[in-house]
Amino acid sequence: MNISSEFSKHALEYGSYNIIQNIVIEKLLLHVESKPKKILDIGCGSGALLSAIDWDYEFFCGVDFAKGMLELHPKSPKIELLYTDFNKDELFDNMLTCSFDFVFSASALQWADDLERIFSKIKGLKAPIALAIFTAGTFKSINETASISSILKSANEIKELQEKYFDANFEVQNYKLEFESTRDIFKYIKKSGVSGSRKVLNYKESKKLLRDYPLNYLEFEVAFIYTSKR
Ligand SMILES: C[S@@+](CC[C@H](N)C(=O)[O-])C[C@H]1O[C@@H](n2cnc3c(N)ncnc32)[C@H](O)[C@@H]1O
């Protein structure tokens, strides 16, 4: 199963498993003062960012490769939804014909095949940005308990790329989400769409992890990259 189908599969239940993603969106929006009119949202999902926007915009373009998510996204004549993979160069080449006055991406670019290439493409759009990217610090203790290394980039790796491509602020935030039981923790990972689906544990190893995980919370680490308020 690839990442896209995991997000789709859980799209309907996504509303109750997106606590951290909603906190991330709230924080991203704090860095936007300009009330942009033409907005691009890369990895828009079911529209949480759009739903949190409280100003009048002219045009909103959301990009996502999970059909199930796009089906849940709010629709209107001002909203264009592109069902496509943000790893494709054609997407950004086509975007050059639109002129966006803000580019958002919330909790999605950790799945970029090549983050550096996407950063260079976003830079080419010449618009202010607010990006939130989950880092390797996410699920840190689970990964340590299972002796696996994260498939995500570290905060430092993301920072290096940010410095190369954007004159922007860089901030790392850590979040903890508490659960009643270890079983609930694993259910959350499966359903939140944060884990991706590159399975590294077999059934027996997963059982062992369920038994050995010492915490009653999950850790999330998110890198925020945002253009300074003017
Ligand atoms: C954790 S969800 C976040 C959704 C939304 N931005 C939010 O904050 O609620 C990540 C989204 O990125 C999308 N995504 C992941 N990889 C993608 C890719 N290569 N191309 C397009 N969308 C992608 C997924 O389908 C999913 O909707």
Please trace the helix and strand order, writing H or E for each element: HHEHEHEHEHEHHEHHE
Quote the CATH topology: Rossmann fold
Distance between the termini: 43 Å
Helix content: 25-40%
Uncertain stretches of 5 or more adjacent residues? none
- Shape type: globular
A few lines on this structure:
The protein has 230 residues and is an alpha/beta fold. The protein has helices at residues 3-9, 19-30, 48-52, 67-72, 89-95, 115-124, 140-145, 155-165, 182-192, 203-212; strands spanning 38-42, 59-64, 79-83, 102-106, 129-134, 169-178, 217-226. It has ten helices and seven strands.
Write up what this structure looks like.
- The chain has 230 residues and is of the alpha/beta class.
- The chain has 10 helices and 7 strands.
- The N and C termini lie far apart (43 Å).
- The chain has a single domain (3-139, 151-176, 220-226), classed as Rossmann fold, CATH 3.40.50.150.
- Helix 6 (115-124) links the parallel strand 4 (102-106) and strand 5 (129-134).
- The protein has a 7-stranded mixed β-sheet, with helices on both faces.
- The chain binds S-adenosylmethionine.
